[in-house]
Design brief:
six-stranded mixed beta sheet, about 270 residues, disordered N terminus, 12 strands
Length: about 270
């Protein structure tokens, strides 16, 4: 089906994967995002740090249009997220169109939300079969590859409850990858884990990054941010206070708020 969609830009490797321009979001009178502007280039990793309540999760949810924005523009791969623009005005996309955009964006949350009554393999093949109409046999072959990538080849037939938190989170990563996303969003993926399980999840994420996945990661794991991120953003009170290469932000923060936040982490 060939349909001209004025929103759909032609493929252009130079275009950033994510571009936020003055993104604002209110919940009633509470202004949670007060004009966020940033870019994530293709194949790069952006880490976002900041105190609780600073708007990090809300910003991630805006990127895949789980939240509507009140002002500004958000583009993923050159395409306006959730809206169509005509004569400087935004019109919300049909839910079907919004869902199509969301399919290309994988999201991993603090809590893994696996289906408890389905095996690991069944969890991973569910969306490709239901949403993308992939043939079961193909979905299973892909799922096996993905489980191998996150180090869980031997767990395909077990149920989530039989896995540790770290293993469950790696299944959640494989499940997101099964939709073949062009962008992965992680919202504090290791915060709910026992300390000894954090490393295996960060390891899987690190491999994903080195395979070239574009990632936006909200995290408190400074070691991961320093090693893996191309760009580190410090958010506070709904604004980007400071952004730059992780080493610069972590070792030589320019703003008092960043210094205070980092000193509390140590
Ligand atoms: N659905 C919502 N309705 C009302 N307020 C919300 C909603 N979601 C988040 N908030 C508020 O927005 C602010 C930012 O939240 P959040 O994005 O979760 O911050 P962070 O992820 O940085 O901790 C908080 O004050 C939170 O209470
Ligand atoms: Mg959050």
């Amino acid at each position: 089906m060939s349909q001209t969609n004025p929103n759909e830009a032609s493929p252009n490797p130079a275009r950033p994967m994510v571009r936020a321009e003055g993104v604002r979001k209110n919940f009633g009178t509470l202004e949670v995002l007060k004009g966020i502007s940033l870019e994530v280039q293709r194949g790069q990793v952006l880490c976002i740090i900041g105190p609780s309540g600073s708007g990090k999760s809300t910003f991630l949810r805006c990127i895949n249009h789980l939240e509507k924005i009140n002002a500004g523009r958000l583009y993923v791969d050159g395409e306006l997220v959730g809206y169509r623009e005509k004569n400087d005005k935004l019109y919300e996309l049909h839910p079907r169109e919004a869902a199509r955009q969301r399919r290309d964006i994988g999201m991993v949350f603090q809590h893994f939300n696996l289906f408890p009554h389905r095996t690991v393999l069944e969890n991973v093949i569910e969306a490709p079969i239901q949403v993308k109409k992939v043939a079961k046999r193909d979905a299973e072959a892909t799922a096996q590859d993905l489980l191998a990538r996150v180090g869980l080849s031997d767990k395909a037939g077990v149920y989530p409850a039989q896995l540790s938190g770290g293993q469950q989170q790696r299944v959640a990563i494989a499940r997101a990858l099964a939709m073949d996303p062009k962008l992965m969003l992680f919202d504090e993926p290791t915060s709910a884990l026992d300390p000894e399980l954090v490393g295996e999840v960060l390891g899987a994420m690190k491999r994903l990054a080195s395979d070239g996945m574009t990632m936006v990661v909200v995290t408190h794991e400074m070691g991961f941010a320093r090693e893996v991120a191309d760009q580190l953003v410090f958010m506070d009170g709904g604004v980007v206070v400071e952004a730059g290469p992780p080493r610069e932000v972590l070792e030589n923060p320019q703003h008092e708020r960043t210094k205070t936040f980092l000193s509390r982490l140590l």
